[in-house]
């Protein structure tokens, strides 16, 4: 033991371990093992269990039941039984329950923080000062939403039983992010914590009991991936919320395809951390510390790709390396520890092998010269320089305390490098020039952007990704939308069958009506990049009227036509950059020209669908109105400023996706198309549109309207042909950012499965088919919401 | 920047600024390019400052040692209109024996009982202070240059420095003309501080920036850099008379300026937060700031001072608690 006089010389910090006696007493009391928490009670642990260990020491902390399909079934059944009562509980009463949970979390704050650190290996400072306070904050915030939901979300209802699967990096915080909004909105849940870190969820289960939450509202089933898979596939689960790896997110997308389950995915990232020459470099260095060494870099939104303006790069690296020397890696329970343990040996192995790959590829590795504990899962803070975008370590999410650094020359290059990733979760931008910083914030493809800050969270702001970082938001008003739905109209299932398969490229057998003066043949082509083009395959199919009379031919587009259409749409990016006012002008002009040709469209509809003159006239009239409606919205679908932290502007901006695929139904061939297309255009997206295969001619007539209405080339592209083949190509296309599909159920399943490639959000509903003539179902904010993604930009201010 | 333990071992007593380990700051010509484009982000500085104390915890024997270290860095101060030679005498007695003997024994420091870093008084109180401290090795610091506003004519301010030095002050805490900083007249500020430094002669110059008046961290950084270029041995936050005195974000900005200056020139400059440090916990936070941002050398009184009057009493109470396990009362410790 050093004496005071020795310490006066060394001025070491010494050790400062947080007491773990309370958490250990709790673990000892559960020495027989933990069962699942179902319907307000714990099941016996049973024989099939797994060990949960402390990654800092390797010691076994607890034995936990491995959830079987039967366990999942029991939990889902309990949640389903609780749902009618809980969803009918007045918002104020639900608010009281959530408030009680928030209070109890606060009253058990130290126990929960220590338990989290034991289980996960994160530094006690983080568990104590970040995780647990944010957990309480999340329940408080959503207690408020429970109170307000009836008035703030009129006409919306809870989804039902939610299956929620959370990761091991923020076990209790992710639980709060999942459970609080679900309960506020009136859903019941079955939550599966990560296999490595189930303990705080089990402690939370006890808190639910202590708070008097009705049995079955929250159920917790532990287990590995197979337990999660059973939950995802369970037919009574109406909503799946997942946070975890992109790989598993893809599997979940595929597993739920066609099931009608609502889905939100919060997945991986390789987020850029962009340092401009005019940044406060010392502040940015601390930013890196909080970006990549927070929670040992095991953070989905970690700023793991440092991009530094070339002129200051060496100076910045020098500052960073010096800062790394003062990072303390070791005992997570020590209050002076900066970097704790890696969650498990398998994760440590992954980090090691990726770092080895980085070195093998020529990267220069710098590691802080720190003593690591002799045992346990530890990895030193690491920085790679001399890496390029093509390097493995620059591309792959390492999920460890390893940053890679690259340089850029100009703002444009910074944006290009920042977006040069399949992910789009977060970005951190450092500059003292607000013009520059906001410019980058607007152009970076990420759901969360921090200016001169990083890893700042608050329950009032939405969190979630673009691109392959997933879809859906957690937190704020936008997060609540994930747990609400519109009531379903009961209709007969019979009306759902598709009737659009097997378009023939052969000449039609039936002769055209013989008349004295033949009409001039009209050739409906594809409309791509503002031009009428012949289909790549060189085939056309005959379009028949309701009684089998041939009406004309439509082009049979194929996958190459889709490719060309997407390329044309990608080039038309200026549509999204222009003002809402300008887009409104174009939409008004479309309405004007459509109206001018109303009788022509009316005749066409009658011939194609057999609609009466009145019905057809109404379809055209409503199409005009609907176009007006979205022209009106084009400059009014405002974002929000969330009330998060003091002296922060947290902007929730509604951004267009870019290129969207739209697949139209057979019913109301003009009106349905207009209903899908116009909100998408109003919000600044470009569309690749597949019209009804049986009634394509209203769509091909429409391109003449588009041509005369100043719609810029490439903004709308129309590819006629086999709907489901074209839809699949669109769904698989990595350049298509979102897809709406209105068609038969088997088509929905195929599209959703195919969308797993780049994890584009899809919006498909077959049951019931929308009544396109009714504004309540076929237009409104929901369409705008689905045509945009929310980007939260955090702008702290103060001089 | 981290091997300072040799000089630290030499003595626990007062240590003259600019020891053999690091010679006095010679200053440089005015280099506006070192500070003109600087960006200091307030929110980021606040975040860093807010978590500094939470990221490091010093407990038990280590805490006792760190509090002793803080004590040895205190400029025990009286700067009041009613100061008298008798009041100064009492303060100096406390400076010589800041801790009760039983506490010194409990700390195991009988052979090198700690004293404070300096005693800081007005110029007319220098003479009684020097007399009271004779033989202790504790230097007397004098504020000067029209403290606290600093708006008397330059000739009088320089004359005041000469007076204090002649009276025996070894350190002069000057105040800058805040107007120069607020108006961006950096060469005027440079000339003023350089003239004061020259007037100080062998006495060491501590430049009070009046950070509460400067308002922005950018101003703080720039004024820090100009003062160092003009030859300041220490940069000091505040007079203690401003609305807001030493804060952690301001201190963070100043020590980063100091680090940058050291990188430019190789000269080590000291840092003195003043006003607002009242508790033992405050003292630990500032020591953590110095260790984390600058390193071990800046944890000694030749490079770190705390301008305080009431801080010492809280440190005494905390050390007694460490020694006895009982919470202490102020009446059990001699008044400063």
UniProtKB/TrEMBL annotation, chain A:
Lineage top rank: taxon: Bacteria
Keywords: Oxidation, Oxidoreductase
Active site: 266
SUPFAM superfamilies (alphabetical): ALDH-like
The keyword Oxidoreductase is annotated on this UniProt entry: yes
Domain Aldehyde dehydrogenase span(s) in chain numbering: 45-484, 548-762
PANTHER family in UniProt: ALDEHYDE DEHYDROGENASE-RELATED (PTHR11699)
Protein name, entry field: Aldehyde dehydrogenase family protein
Lineage: Bacteria, Pseudomonadati, Pseudomonadota, Alphaproteobacteria, Hyphomicrobiales
From TrEMBL, chain B:
The reaction(s) this protein catalyses: 2-deoxy-D-ribose 5-phosphate = D-glyceraldehyde 3-phosphate + acetaldehyde
Family matches, as InterPro entries: Aldolase_TIM, DeoC, DeoC/FbaB/LacD_aldolase
Enzyme type, top EC level: lyase
Keywords: Lyase, Schiff base
Gene3D superfamilies with a match to the protein in the record: Aldolase class I (3.20.20.70)
Listed pathway(s): Carbohydrate degradation; 2-deoxy-D-ribose 1-phosphate degradation; D-glyceraldehyde 3-phosphate and acetaldehyde from 2-deoxy-alpha-D-ribose 1-phosphate: step 2/2
Molecular functions (GO terms): deoxyribose-phosphate aldolase activity
GO cellular component: cytoplasm
E.C. number: 4.1.2.4
Residue ranges of the region described as Disordered: 1-25
Keyword Lyase annotated: yes
GO BP, sorted A to Z: carbohydrate catabolic process; deoxyribonucleotide catabolic process
Family indicated by similarity: Belongs to the DeoC/FbaB aldolase family. DeoC type 2 subfamily.
Identification of the protein by name: Deoxyribose-phosphate aldolase
Species for this entry: Lichenibacterium minor
């Amino acid at each position: 033991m050093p004496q005071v006089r020795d310490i006066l010389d060394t001025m070491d910090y010494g050790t400062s371990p947080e007491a773990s006696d309370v958490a250990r007493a709790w673990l000892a009391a559960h020495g027989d093992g933990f069962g699942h928490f179902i319907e307000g009670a714990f099941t016996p642990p049973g024989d099939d269990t797994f060990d949960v260990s402390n990654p800092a020491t390797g010691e076994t902390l607890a034995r936990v039941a491995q959830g079987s399909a039967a366990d999942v079934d029991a939990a889902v059944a309990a949640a389903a039984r609780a749902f009618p009562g809980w969803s009918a509980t007045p918002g104020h009463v639900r608010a009281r329950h959530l408030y009680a949970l928030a209070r109890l979390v606060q009253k058990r704050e130290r126990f929960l923080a220590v338990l989290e650190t034991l289980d996960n290996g994160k530094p006690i400072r983080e568990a104590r000062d970040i995780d647990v306070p944010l957990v309480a904050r999340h329940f408080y915030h959503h207690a408020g939403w429970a109170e307000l939901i009836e008035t703030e979300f009129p006409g919306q209802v809870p989804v039902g039983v939610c299956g929620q699967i959370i990761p091991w990096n923020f076990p209790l915080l992710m639980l709060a992010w999942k459970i609080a909004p679900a309960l506020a909105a009136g859903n019941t849940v079955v939550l599966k914590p990560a296999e490595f870190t189930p303990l705080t969820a089990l402690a939370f289960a006890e808190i639910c009991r202590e708070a008097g939450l009705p049995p079955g509202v929250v159920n917790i089933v532990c287990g590995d991936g197979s337990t999660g898979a059973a939950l995802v596939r369970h037919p009574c689960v109406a909503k799946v919320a997942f946070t975890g790896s992109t790989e598993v997110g893809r599997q979940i997308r595929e597993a739920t395809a066609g099931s009608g389950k609502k889905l939100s995915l919060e997945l991986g990232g390789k987020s850029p951390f962009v340092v401009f020459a005019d940044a406060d470099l010392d502040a940015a260095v601390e930013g890196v510390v909080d970006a990549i060494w927070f929670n040992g870099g095991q953070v989905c939104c970690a700023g793991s790709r440092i991009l530094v303006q070339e002129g200051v790069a060496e100076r910045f690296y020098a500052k960073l390396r010096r800062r790394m020397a003062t990072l303390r890696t070791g005992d997570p329970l020590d209050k002076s520890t900066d970097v704790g343990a890696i969650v498990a040996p398998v994760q440590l192995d992954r980090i090691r092998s990726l770092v080895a790959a980085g070195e093998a590829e020529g990267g220069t590795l710098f590691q802080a010269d720190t003593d690591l504990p002799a045992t346990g899962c530890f990895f030193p803070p690491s920085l790679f320089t001399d890496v390029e975008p093509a390097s493995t370590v620059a591309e792959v999410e390492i999920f460890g305390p390893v940053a890679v650094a690259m340089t850029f020359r100009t703002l444009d290059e910074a944006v290009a490098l920042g977006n040069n990733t399949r992910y789009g979760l977060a970005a951190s931008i450092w500059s003292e020039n607000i013009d520059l910083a906001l410019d980058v914030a607007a152009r970076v493809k990420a759901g969360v952007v921090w200016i001169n800050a990083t890893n700042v969270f608050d329950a009032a702001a939405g969190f979630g990704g673009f691109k392959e970082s997933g879809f859906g938001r957690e937190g704020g008003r936008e997060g609540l939308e994930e747990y609400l739905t519109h009531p379903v109209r009961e209709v007969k299932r019979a009306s759902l069958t598709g009737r659009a398969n097997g378009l023939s490229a052969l000449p039609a057998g039936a002769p055209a009506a013989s008349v004295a003066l033949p009409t001039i043949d009209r050739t409906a082509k594809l409309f791509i990049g503002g031009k009428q083009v012949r289909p790549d395959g060189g085939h056309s199919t005959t379009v028949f009227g309701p009684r089998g009379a041939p009406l004309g031919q439509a082009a049979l587009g194929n996958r190459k036509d889709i490719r060309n259409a997407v390329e044309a749409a990608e080039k038309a990016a200026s549509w999204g950059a222009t003002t809402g006012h300008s887009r409104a002008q174009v939409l008004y002009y479309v309405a004007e020209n459509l109206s001018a040709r109303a009788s022509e469209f009316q005749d066409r509809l009658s011939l194609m669908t057999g609609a009466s003159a009145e019905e057809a006239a109404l379809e055209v009239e409503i199409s005009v109105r609907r176009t007006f409606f979205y022209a009106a919205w084009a400059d009014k679908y405002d974002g929000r400023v969330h009330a998060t932290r003091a002296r922060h502007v947290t902007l929730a901006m509604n951004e267009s996706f870019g290129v969207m695929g739209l697949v139209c139904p057979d019913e109301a061939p003009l009106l349905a198309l207009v209903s899908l297309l116009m909100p998408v255009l109003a919000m600044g997206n470009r569309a690749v549109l597949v019209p009804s295969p049986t009634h394509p001619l209203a769509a091909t007539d429409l391109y003449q309207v588009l041509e005369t209405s100043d719609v810029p080339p490439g903004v709308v592209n129309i590819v006629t042909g086999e709907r489901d083949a074209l839809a699949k190509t669109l769904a698989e296309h990595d350049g298509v950012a979102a897809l709406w599909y209105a068609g038969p159920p088997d088509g929905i399943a195929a599209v959703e499965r195919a969308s797993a490639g780049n994890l584009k959000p899809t919006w498909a509903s077959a049951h019931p088919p929308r009544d396109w003539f009714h504004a309540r179902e076929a237009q409104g904010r929901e369409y705008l919401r689905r045509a945009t993604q929310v980007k939260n930009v955090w702008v702290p201010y103060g001089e | 920047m981290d091997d300072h333990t040799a000089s630290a071992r030499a003595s626990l007593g007062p240590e003259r600024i600019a020891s053999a380990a690091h010679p006095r700051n010679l200053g440089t010509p005015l280099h506006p390019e070192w500070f003109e484009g600087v960006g200091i982000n307030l929110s980021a500085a606040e975040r860093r400052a807010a978590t500094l104390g939470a990221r490091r915890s010093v407990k038990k024997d280590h805490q006792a040692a760190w509090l002793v270290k803080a004590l040895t860095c205190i400029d025990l101060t009286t700067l009041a209109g009613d100061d008298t030679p008798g009041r100064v005498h009492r303060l100096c007695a406390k400076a010589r024996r800041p801790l009760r003997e039983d506490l010194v024994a409990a700390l195991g420091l009988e052979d090198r009982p700690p004293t404070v870093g300096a005693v800081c008084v007005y110029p007319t109180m220098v003479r009684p202070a020097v007399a009271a401290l004779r033989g202790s090795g504790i230097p007397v610091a004098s504020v000067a240059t029209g403290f606290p506003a600093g708006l008397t004519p330059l000739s009088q301010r320089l004359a005041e420095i000469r007076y204090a030095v002649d009276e025996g002050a070894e350190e002069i805490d000057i105040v800058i003309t805040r107007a120069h900083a607020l108006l961006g007249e950096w060469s005027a500020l440079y000339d003023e501080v350089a003239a004061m430094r020259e007037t100080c002669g062998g006495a060491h110059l501590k430049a009070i920036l009046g950070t509460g008046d400067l308002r922005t961290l950018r101003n703080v950084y720039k004024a820090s850099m100009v003062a160092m270029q003009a030859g300041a041995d220490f940069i000091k936050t505040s007079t203690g008379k401003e609305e807001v005195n030493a804060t952690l974000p301001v201190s963070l900005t100043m020590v980063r300026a100091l680090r940058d200056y050291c990188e430019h020139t190789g000269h080590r400059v000291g840092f003195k937060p003043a006003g607002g440090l009242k508790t033992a916990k405050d003292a630990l936070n500032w020591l953590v700031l110095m260790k984390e941002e600058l390193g071990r050398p800046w944890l000694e009184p030749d490079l770190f001072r705390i301008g305080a009057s009431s801080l010492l009493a809280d440190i005494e109470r905390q050390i007694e608690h460490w020694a006895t396990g009982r919470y202490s009362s102020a009446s059990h410790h001699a008044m400063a």
